[in-house]
């Protein structure tokens, strides 16, 4: 009974009254809802506006910071670029009016020597280098100082910086690009593979994009590598041999570069020459190369590691002296032929070439060590071990008949003479001839 009474108390005394009260309540709720929604909408608009303002301001500050922090740009910088890029050959010279060359990796080993040779014969040269820390940047800065003393200006920047490349081509109508910037080294690829993709593939594409959009388009000469021959066992290595079996990531990125440059030649009419270097050595060289590190360790009394191939076969390399490589690079620039595109559009076929640049005289690594021992007058402490599976190949040997025919390329420096010149430079640069050592007859 109590339950029924409670249920009755809950019913309204006047039938129909609940509908009116409920309708009024619903109206008030709807009014409050719409009022709340309108307020929320206004708040949302306010928040969106504030967010957009913040993002715009942040973008402005970020862009401004990048602009003011940039190590390039400005009228003085542009004057330096133009002065460095201006050819200085005498009017009416047999070589012509002179080239205007953008050299990437200009503070590197090959880049420094090529830039000096171009400037020496009267060509205009502008360098670009990012001065990374793959090896001691002080050596690169010393090379830059050497270039500056000969009137070559080197921009500190990355070839992946499209804005910088566009600016350089806006300031100077370069006739040629000598592209030598790259992440080098076979073994380092196992430690830092991303650096090879960043420099050797992405960087190459960025540079080619700038070249194909430039007006006029420059002719491009670039450094591939003998490493592209990979697991090929037909010797001497010929440009006609297959290169689809790379033995290292470094080799794979260089092979990719050859395919990429072919694409830009085919689509955009860029004149492209690829140069497959074979183990370049000499003064101002790279500290990560075997001959350089052997020299350092021998002088410091530290052991050196000498690798052997399978069945105790000595490794052999087609060591090529830097001056011979430079002559091949300059001959490639001189015979490159014109690009045929305008505004990124191809007007006709353009030259596409690949050459081996080697010494065509392989020498075993133990022979290299014995030559260094003789010139340094110190016996090396050798650890002879089997070559690890790190991408190195046991043997390289260049067939240079194509370069000899089309570039008149003819290497003239033996490993014996080349190492003598290197040791003389090394002892002088690192100060060994200032102490009690006697190397005066080198």
Describe the structure.
The chain is α/β, with parallel strands linked by helices. It contains 13 helices and 15 strands. The strands form five sheets. The chain has a seven-stranded parallel sheet, sandwiched between helices. Strands 7-10 form a two-stranded parallel ribbon. A two-stranded parallel ribbon has the order 8-15. Helix 4 (109-120) runs parallel beside helix 5 (137-149). The chain is globular and about 55 Å long.
Please name the defining characteristics of this protein.
13 helices, 442 residues, seven-stranded parallel beta sheet, 15 strands, 47% helix, alpha/beta
Radius of gyration: 33 Å
Shape: globular
Described by strand count, sense and barrel closure, the largest sheet is: 7 strands, parallel
Number of helices: 13
Task: Say how many strands there are.
Answer: 15
Going by helix content, strand content and strand pairing, the class is: alpha/beta
The H/E string reads HHHEHEHEHEHEHEEHEEEHEEEEHEHH
Nearest-integer average pLDDT: 86
Strand content: 5-15%
Low-confidence stretches: 1-23, 51-69
Briefly say what this structure is.
The protein contains 13 helices and 15 strands. With 442 residues, the chain is α/β, with parallel strands linked by helices.
């Amino acid at each position: 009974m109590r339950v029924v009474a409670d249920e009755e108390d809950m019913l309204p005394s006047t039938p129909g009254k609940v509908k009116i009260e409920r309708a009024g309540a619903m109206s008030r709720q709807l009014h409050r809802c719409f009022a709340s929604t309108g307020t929320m909408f206004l708040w949302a608009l306010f928040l969106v506006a504030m967010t957009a303002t913040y993002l715009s301001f942040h973008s402005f500050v970020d862009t401004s910071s990048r602009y003011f922090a940039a190590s390039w740009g400005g009228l003085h910088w542009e004057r330096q670029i133009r002065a460095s890029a201006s050819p200085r050959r005498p009017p009416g010279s047999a070589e012509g009016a002179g080239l205007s060359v953008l050299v990437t990796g200009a503070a590197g080993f090959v880049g420094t020597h090529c830039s000096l040779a171009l400037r020496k014969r009267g060509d205009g040269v502008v360098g670009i280098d990012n001065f990374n820390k793959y090896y001691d940047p002080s050596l690169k800065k010393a090379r830059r100082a050497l270039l500056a003393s000969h009137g070559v200006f080197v921009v500190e920047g990355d070839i992946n910086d499209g804005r910088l490349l566009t600016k350089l081509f806006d300031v100077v109508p370069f006739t040629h690009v000598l592209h030598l910037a790259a992440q080098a080294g076979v073994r380092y690829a196992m430690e830092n593979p991303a650096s090879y993709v960043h420099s050797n593939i992405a960087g190459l594409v960025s540079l080619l994009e700038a070249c194909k959009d430039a007006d006029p388009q420059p002719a491009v000469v670039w450094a591939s590598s003998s490493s592209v021959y990979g697991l090929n066992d037909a010797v001497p290595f010929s440009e006609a041999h297959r290169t689809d079996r790379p033995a290292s990531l470094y080799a794979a990125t260089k092979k990719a570069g050859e395919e990429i440059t072919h694409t830009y030649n085919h689509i955009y009419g860029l004149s492209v020459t690829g140069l497959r270097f074979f183990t370049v050595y000499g003064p101002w060289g790279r500290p990560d190369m075997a001959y350089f590190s052997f020299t350092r360790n021998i002088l410091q009394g530290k052991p050196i590691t000498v690798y052997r191939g399978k069945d105790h076969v000595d490794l052999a390399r087609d060591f090529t002296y830097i001056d011979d490589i430079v002559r091949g690079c300059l001959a490639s620039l001189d015979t490159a032929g014109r690009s045929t595109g305008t505004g990124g559009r191809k007007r006709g076929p353009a030259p596409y070439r690949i050459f081996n640049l080697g010494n065509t005289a392989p020498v075993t690594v133990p022979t290299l060590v014995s030559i260094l021992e003789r010139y340094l007058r110190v016996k090396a402490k050798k650890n002879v071990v089997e070559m690890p599976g790190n991408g190195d190949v046991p043997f390289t040997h260049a067939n240079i008949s194509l370069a000899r025919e089309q570039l008149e390329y003819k290497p003239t420096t033996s490993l014996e003479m080349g190492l003598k010149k290197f040791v003389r430079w090394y002892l002088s640069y690192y100060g060994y001839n200032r102490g009690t050592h006697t190397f005066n007859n080198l």
